[in-house]
Amino acid sequence: MTAAADARGTELGRYLKARRAQVRPEDVGLPAGAGLRRTPGLRREELAALAGVSVDYYIRLERGRETNPSPAVVDALGRTLRLRGDGYERLHELAELASGRPTELPACSDHTVRGSVLRMLESVRPLPAYVVSRYNRVLAANPPGRRLMPGLWDWPEEQRNLTRYVFLHPVGRTLYEPWVETVALSVAHLRAVGGADPDSPELTALVGELMLKSTQFARLWERYDVCERGGGQKSFRHPEVGPMTLTYEVMRLARTGGQRMVVYQAAPGTPDEAAMLRLEPTATRSEPESPVLSRS
Q: pLDDT of 83-138, one tens digit each?
């Protein structure tokens, strides 16, 4: 087996092991047994039996020594592990990678934001909006988008990453509520967008830093939860404009290697909208302030 194939198989094995630990015996109709189990979740032999594969074959999969599981085997493992949605797709994606028949890899990451996208950021004001890279580095934002994340822009350009912000910045750790749920979704989303390129230097550098600096991140990363977010709702305890709950939409930008534009809004006439509108600078809009790139 080549080193590349071994690495791909190892990533599949990590995912299987992490998800196996999340399934209790009683979840799949097995008796929990007396006393404490040494293995969290299902044992290897239990998962293999339920999925209809040999224990030896499953162990080779989990250790990265088997890199060509059939679609039927992948389906059986997914059902046994009770995977749904993004988690199920992630299993198939890793199986394709392990087999050497990868799904379409993302284009090379590009941190340059097109002029047309910068104009879009300006056009949606007073709604807060920003552009992030595939791995959540903030590349540009309109003025209310900048004010939505206090302190982020004090960091050097290359450090302005939303996942780093929620774990390591003192304001980021108090801005969102509930924080625990916010960071869990952030890590699950990072796992999802890692997708077909888990060895990306940008991703591995970010994950390595956060594993060292945040025990909460390390614990969540090892769970291997997967959830790709396309929009939703966030609640803020904003130090400048007060509490607010905003909905947001995420728009993928074509031919950018994974850039996304995120736009927040609130229902008209609500206290949430009033708080959000206070993020807009008080200066006159007769000469619009241009969206700011991720440069000081």
A: 877 787 778 878 887 776 655 544 445 688 999 999 999 999 999 999 999 899 99
Count other Cβ atoms within 10 Å, centred on residue 41: 18
Q: CA–CA separation, 165 vs 75, rounded Å?
A: 37
* pLDDT score, position 130: 97
Nearest to 166 by CA among 145, 143, 190: 190
Please enumerate in sequence order all residues whose Cβ is within 8 A of that of 178, keeping only pairs 6 or more positions apart, or say none. 235
How confident is the model at residue 283, as a pLDDT?
45
The first and second tokens of residue 1, run together, are 């087996």
Is the overall model pTM greater than 0.85, yes or no? Answer: no
Q: Six-digit token pair at 177?
A: 């509520």
